[in-house]
């Protein structure tokens, strides 16, 4: 990758980092869900998930959905439709009834896709977040049996000496969070990295385990099972300063990279045409679910308790809008958009 990203842009990326003093941070108190508005819901809720089963988005939604279903007294049904970097499910969402019985689970690709002009979703116009309950930093992993390198330093030395372009398995390609972060790492490290998108999480894992790619881009919780089995080795935490649990893995500052990274986030979305009282009810239920023991256990299992904060609909919309402007600037400098 040869795109040059000026230093002002790198500073702008900082707005996407969440902190305790950041926008819309909620405290840990339990919010009691309101009475069901006009008997809603009276039947099962369908949630569209734009990635295959077993991946981070699927796990997140099923964990959150289990708690929401318990509070609401109805079942949650899940429809997984992967493809096009998470965009294949969007047309189905756009034509679904706007009665609050069909929701969309999606991550930051809603924002990056709008910035890059890759889909027809417009935040605040035809899609709004019900809640954003999960955020996380990412890591780069290598195959533990790859004899070319065993850590970030040796990987950079190998790439610089050979001039080889190292391929990176990720969930999304050009015009995505992954593409932006990998480009910044590539530029700052003086090596060539190429993102290879795999919509199905199993395909990403197979690619790195089969050594069809050199690196695997994902969040710590997604790589955890393979690290524990000795199959993958994390070599770089894509965060300014790694949490104590990952202090043994170099972060961006440890390897001399000065840009401010963005976090991945996962959200539950709805059409703004869903009646307001139903969206308010869903937000309150999501907030209560996010305070539940089951959800907190899930966050700890996936290490996302280290970064996650709860954003309600209004705060989440503002946060997503800030990210949108940041990514638009990023993509202009990458030549993806005019």
UniProtKB/TrEMBL annotation:
Pfam families: TctC. Keywords: Signal. Residues 1-28 form the signal peptide. The keyword Magnesium does not apply. Belongs to the UPF0065 (bug) family. This is Tripartite tricarboxylate transporter substrate binding protein.
